[in-house]
Amino acid sequence: MLPLETPFLRGKIKVFQYEKGYRFGIDSVILANFIELKPKEKSLEIGAGCGLISFIGALRFPQAKIYLLEKDPLYLRALTMGISANRLERALFPLKGDAHELPFRGNSLDVVFLNPPYFKRESGRQSPNDLKESARRESNFDLKRCLREIASVLKKGGRLYIIFTAFRTTELIDLLIEAKLEPKVLRMVHSYPEAEAKMILIKALKGAKSGVRILPPLFIYQSKGGDYTPELKEWLEL
């Protein structure tokens, strides 16, 4: 089974995805435009999947150096093909590895970012497709253990960027603080004005003091069933 090429951002990016597997969503685009990367920083994306978040990150920050960690060999093949097709071999470095045992020395990374599974193992209907199941549900993923690993490899003051389901906001914040990853910036994501928050973006710093900025909400659509907001249109055109 080979992944199929999907042009994105008006052909600026080529993404390889499996026809019957998990396909990237708007949350990947949102996280990619939330992260901030500085020259000479050592960054890591956990659970990179097809690599879209890091591909956009490399476009936004041309001097970035990003490691892409992926456990599944099928996804690893897809993101490796994407790196080659986009000529990003000098910026992006694929690694096979587990989110619970990060292959980095302690206190060695400046930035980590991830779009983890949103749903607990026992919640909702299970998908018969293994690729979709692992991307959506914590069938083989432990958020607490992953955050603990992230805290161990981040430098003091290092940054974590994460997007997650708004329904589990309290749990996520508790786990971040327990791991000594202090939430410093929050932004709620809504489908459209008047709709409840669907997702949350959080920037956390390792070892920082408490105190958080809450940014204005992000709306994906201008209205229910309407067009994308200007902010999303800009991101989708880049």
What does this structure look like?
- By secondary structure, the protein is an alpha/beta fold.
- The chain has one domain (4-237): Vaccinia Virus protein VP39 (Rossmann fold), CATH 3.40.50.150.
- The chain has helices at 26-32, 52-60, 73-85, 130-136, 143-153, 169-178, 230-237, and strands at residues 4-8, 13-17, 42-46, 65-70, 92-96, 109-114, 154-165, 181-190, 197-206, 213-214, 218-219.
- Strand 8 and strand 9 (197-206) form a beta hairpin.
- The protein is globular.
- The two termini are 31 Å apart.
Task: Count up the helices.
Answer: 7
Beta-strand percent range: 25-35%
Radius of gyration computed on alpha carbons? 17 Å
Helix content: 25-40%
Total beta strands: 11
Number of structural units classed as domains:
1
Cα(first) to Cα(last) distance is 31 Å
Task: Find the CATH superfamily.
Answer: Vaccinia Virus protein VP39
Largest sheet: 9 strands, mixed
Q: Determine the CATH topology.
A: Rossmann fold
List keywords for this structure.
alpha/beta, Rossmann fold, two-stranded antiparallel sheet, 11 strands
Topology:
Blueprint: E1 4-8, E2 13-17, H1 26-32, E3 42-46, H2 52-60, E4 65-70, H3 73-85, E5 92-96, E6 109-114, H4 130-136, H5 143-153, E7 154-165, H6 169-178, E8 181-190, E9 197-206, E10 213-214, E11 218-219, H7 230-237
Parallel strand pairs: 3-4, 3-6, 4-5, 6-7, 8-10, 8-11
Antiparallel strand pairs: 1-2, 7-9, 8-9
